[in-house]
Amino acid sequence: MTLRLPSVAQGKPLPEAVAQGKAPPEPREGATRAERGVGAPASERAGESGGAKPPGIVFDEVSKFYGEVLGVNRVTLNIPAGITSLVGPNGSGKTTLMNLMTGLIHPDHGSILMRGISPRNPEALMRITGYATQYDTAPRWATGFTFITTGLQLFGYGRADAEDRAWKALERVSLTEAANRKVAGYSKGMRQRVRLAQAIAHDPQLLVLDEPLNGLDPLVRAETIALFRAWANEGKHVVISSHVLQEVDLISDQVVLIANGMVIAEGSIRTVREEIHEHPSHYLIRCRDASAVASRLFGEEHITEIKLHDDRLGLLVMTRDREEFARALGRIAADGHRIDGVLPADENVDALYEYLIGGES
Amino acid sequence: MTPGVSRARQAWTIARIELRRAFLSKRGLWVYGLALLPAFAFTGHALDVTWQQQRLARRGLTDPVLMAGVQTGETLDAVTARLGPPAEDRASVRTERARGSGASATTTSVIEPAVEARFVRLNITRPAYDGSRAARIYEFEIYGPDGRQNLALGREATGSRPCNADQGPEKAVNGSVVGGPADRWCAEAWNAFLQVDLGAPRRVQRFVVHHASAGGEDPALDTRDFNIQVSSDGREFATVATSAGAALVERRTEYRNVTYFDGRQVARFSAVDGVVESRRISPVVDFTEDRMVFAGIFQYFYLRLAVFFGCLGMFMYLFSGEMTNRTLHYWFLAPARREVLLVGKYAAGLIASAVIFGGGALLAFAAMVAPQDAVEVQAYWDAGGRAHAFWYAAAAALGCLGYGSVFLALGVWLRRPIVPAAIILAWESVNGILPHALQKLSILYYLQSICPVPAPMDDEAPLLIRLLAAPAAPASRPMAILGLLMLTAVVLWFAGRAVRRMEISYGAEA
């Protein structure tokens, strides 16, 4: 389990995280699920059914800038087969990572291998990869069916073969009824599904799906999730993105948390949650008798650091357990110490946490 | 299957998918308008010629020998008697009011017998024929019975207030008429008069007046009515001569244009007052001239503008247009090398544009030939006309090849094509005045060398136009084609490099 937090002051990964990230990833091996203590990973099941595990999705120190603006910064990842969720707020870099995986954009630094194939080689990579983007566009002329068969022609399938595959893909996303209507007339959810069908029609081993559950009604959503599970069990990579952690909580084998273009945590959903929870948080306590409050807090086991604020009317506190900290503050206040306010001092992580864990849902 | 073959197949698959859009996209329909514009123009010309021929032939055809026999100076009656009723007969009459005969720039009045006088007066009663109020006298001469000496010359002259300080009465007795308006006496007063003091009583008999036209002015300004008075004391005057100018008359001129037609040529005779003054015999359609017009339109409009902008629209769209429409990523997510994608898209654009513009050139050529005389056309076909048609179509298609590669490359590099397109248009336009080495870097240089007929250029056109339109020193045709292919290959190679590095960026992204 890797946990990387951006230090608020520097805006860079913590030194130890960087050191860890620099350890050269082993593409063949991947990060084993067993080490993380997560049960019944898809990759293991695939392993049971025979053959060696496929190499993972490997990012090595990948950075991408849009001019001066940072896209993603020094991302190192090793994603094994199974369902992986990229989770982060809007604008955090999920789509950038997915575009990097599929070669729609190229990294400024670092290297990427998708099951051992560079995204700069679309001829090989895209044969085993399907990417359903967030770009809500389709050619004007296309019906759902011709849209997919046209794409399949580029794979070299014959007419009958392409039509057969297109039909199966449309069946999988329950879109057969609208197959012969123009995509331009579809609803948002239907367009979402036709893009999904287009991405899976050639039966790829690597599926990259940008917010695939957006705009789906509950029934289709459940079917789609079942589909992902089935693919994962076949040993495929299913990479999906979401800005709501809860949405992908139960279905993911692993989660990659992203904020401001940096990977904050990756691993199973449970460990990610715990580690974010246990990570020391900074608070600013506003109070008149700062030194008295400080002496009370020194006694608390979860407090790791206390500093007097420059104006002597506040304390900068670092705690490992925010719930214990809240209880301790309650006790201190009950004893007659006047506390004017408590503000989270490292808002980025805190806000991100609230946001991801349920702030939005 | 070897990778080369499968890549070629893939490129062809891409081209097939793109072809439908290249030919039929609604936003691309204007390209057809550009391509067919010359064909429309020549079709209009052909229809016009046909209607004209039908109209002229309605009253029957005339023997060409008779037509050719008409000479200037003949009366029109003789012509119509010989040739029969004309196909067209247009007459117009112009009338104007003018001075009758007898008027002249200088008038002489003689009295009999001579009288003795010291003062002589010229009274202007009606100053001009055209109603102008100003009297204009360039010289007033007075002679005695011996008639040799101008008694008024240099004498003291007075009179009505002059129009201008330098046009006083003395100018009428200065012995000169050739100095322009400053050499005349001019007065605008009602009943203006000019009086000369001869210095002493003299015998006078002959009075000569030089009017406006004697000094070079319009004859309509000559004095119309005047009289001359004499006096010995300057107080009591006696009228000795009166001159009334010629009356105004209506002058009538009859103009007539008659046209005869022999089925091929049109003879136009213009007659003034019934006499043939000019004749012109010319074919209804002039094949040689029409071919030159075609060559001009082809080079100055078709290659430089229609093919240029048509390719701009069609080839720019292949990448930058799809970027704008947010559909380019579908292509980039296909299992194909980016170069294969580039070649496939280029092939689609090339096939569509070559068919549209090559076909447009052939249609225009056919429309140009259609109304021509069959015999002339046959002679033209036999003398290399077919090759001309072929090379016009080939030049248009090769233009698509060259411009297409340039705009495809630009579309890969840039999203907004307007400014670079303007720069390229300017570059292609100044092509003729560039040093030879630089000329080879323009598409037009090669296309001009491929065209079968050099573009016509009027020697009287302004220098700048001639420079801009001047064809570059033409290369031989095989070299031109080779050069164009090489230039295209180089541009495509750069485009291939660029497309490998190309990234999807649709603007704001989540």
Question: What is shown here, in short?
Answer:
In chain A, 37% of the residues lie in helices and 24% in strands.
Please describe what this structure looks like:
The complex is a heterodimer of chains A (361) and B (510). Chain A is of the alpha/beta class and 361 residues long. Chain A has 2 domains: 200 residues, Rossmann fold (3-Layer(aba) Sandwich), CATH 3.40.50.300; 80 residues, Alpha-Beta Plaits (2-Layer Sandwich). Chain A is built from 14 helices and 14 strands. In chain A, the strands form 3 sheets. In chain A, strands 1-10-9-4-8-7-6 form a 7-stranded mixed β-sheet, with helices on both faces. Chain A has a 4-stranded antiparallel β-sheet with strand order 12-13-11-14. In chain A, a hairpin with a 5-residue loop joins β12 and β13. In chain A, α6 packs across α7 and α7 crosses α8. The two termini of chain A are 27 Å apart. Chain B folds into 3 domains: 250 residues; 72 residues, Beta-lactamase Inhibitory Protein, Chain:B, domain 1, CATH 3.30.1450.10; 141 residues, no CATH class. Chain B is built from 13 helices and 12 strands. In chain B, the strands form 3 sheets. In chain B, strands 2, 4, 5, 7, 8 and 9 form a 6-stranded antiparallel β-sheet that branches. Chain B has a 4-stranded antiparallel β-sheet with strand order 1-10-11-12. In chain B, strands 3-6 form a two-stranded antiparallel ribbon. In chain B, a hairpin with a 3-residue loop joins β10 and β11. In chain B, α5 packs antiparallel against α7 and α5 runs parallel beside α8. The longest helix of chain B has 40 residues. The model of chain B has no long low-confidence stretch (mean pLDDT 86). The chains are: A alpha/beta (361), B alpha+beta (510). At the A-B interface, α4, α5 and α6 of A face α1 and α6 of B.
